Model the fold of this input.
Amino acid sequence: MKKLLLHKVSKSFQTEIPLPSSKSESNRALIINALAGGKDNLSNLAEARDTQTMMRLLASDDAVADVIDAGTTMRFLTAYFAITGQQKTMTGTPRMCDRPIGILVDALRTLGAEIEYVKNEGYPPLNLKGFNFSGNNHLKIRGDVSSQYISAILMIAPLLPEGLVLEITGELGSKPYIEMTLQQMACFGIDFKADWASKTITVPAQKYQAIPYAIESDWSGASYWFTVVALSENPDASLELLGLKENSLQGDSVVTQIMSHLGVKSEYTGRGFKLTKIKEAESLEWDFTNCPDLAQTICVVASAKNIPLTLTGIESLKVKETDRIFALQTELAKIGGKLVEIETNHKYLLTTDQISFDKPAFHTYDDHRMAMAFAPLALSYDVIIEEPDVVVKSYPSFWKHLSAIVEIEEI
Ligand SMILES: O=C(O)C1=C[C@@H](OP(=O)(O)O)[C@@H](O)[C@H](O)C1
Ligand SMILES: C=C(OP(=O)(O)O)C(=O)O
Done:
């Protein structure tokens, strides 16, 4: 098994980090640009494997589309291949075939897609067999499992002969990702109406306009650098994260607010954000419904700083790259962290006991965010990260960037 030993950092740092581009924005732009018939219009596309996979599959005539472990690629391409009438088998890693897709398949079938499950009802692999518009222009779709189904349907909605009225039912998670989808669609010329009180989005039938479009830097990837500053023992440590926008399409930009309670001040510099250290709060309560990908980052900081953290809105973590709640519970325990569900209404409490440990080795569960969330603990002590190559999913240059601050050795 490949492992990295990250040596404890004792020196201070004032460094610039050139952040990667957002895979979420990239994967939307690629689908929308393809639907617009655009050619080389997109710039600053992500190096993330999820985005490289999207590009490869959009350009391929193969009958099998293997998305590997990319959720957005699976969900967005299923809708794209369905509406464009392509016959494809959609598949991915064993974990991808354990991540639910029934809500999206039901919605696409209602619109007129012919889709068969290859093995298990409700899960990939899928066979897409064609599209005959059913005449339905009003859909209800659950919002509590993954917003990616809703984004996938919205992006194809303008191509439906009568457009679409999409009514979201139940709780809505990851709403900023749906707003990101709508804002990117608007950039490519689409009119829509979103009534958030009734959770109803109306998209008339219309054509996308192919336009030049540049992808922003990734706020989810930025979160790990907030941890680096939060855990540095040097009061004058600072980082400038290059390429981040002040008014981002990405909901994970809320990391600036969360981390202001955990000891990091962030200021816009015109070319990104500068992070410096400030005093932290004594405890924190946060609802992660709108920013599930930040939960691992925040748990690690809170545990390392021994700040009691109450979390809500983390149910969707169970159906991501791994069961992230289980993975967090298991790995945080190695540094004394106890993450427990304290009420049946999905409220969790993270507290940390003083335990003795030496060079903890963190398992990464085929999950890029486990590796990147735990790596900054090297600001406090030596740590080992197992299977570090998982970071390629969203941030292939993560270890190279981290080596500007941390001495990293392959063992
Ligand atoms: O639409 C997107 O780009 C994403 C939506 C979120 O998923 P869910 O909607 O399943 O929470 C997020 O966790 C994922 O990393 C990216
Ligand atoms: C959940 C994630 O991605 P996806 O659902 O697109 O696989 C993620 O990047 O944290």
In short: The two ends are 9 Å apart (CA to CA). The domain at 3-20+217-410 is CATH 3.65.10.10 (UDP-n-acetylglucosamine1-carboxyvinyl-transferase; Chain). The longest helix spans residues 23-36. The mean pLDDT is 97.
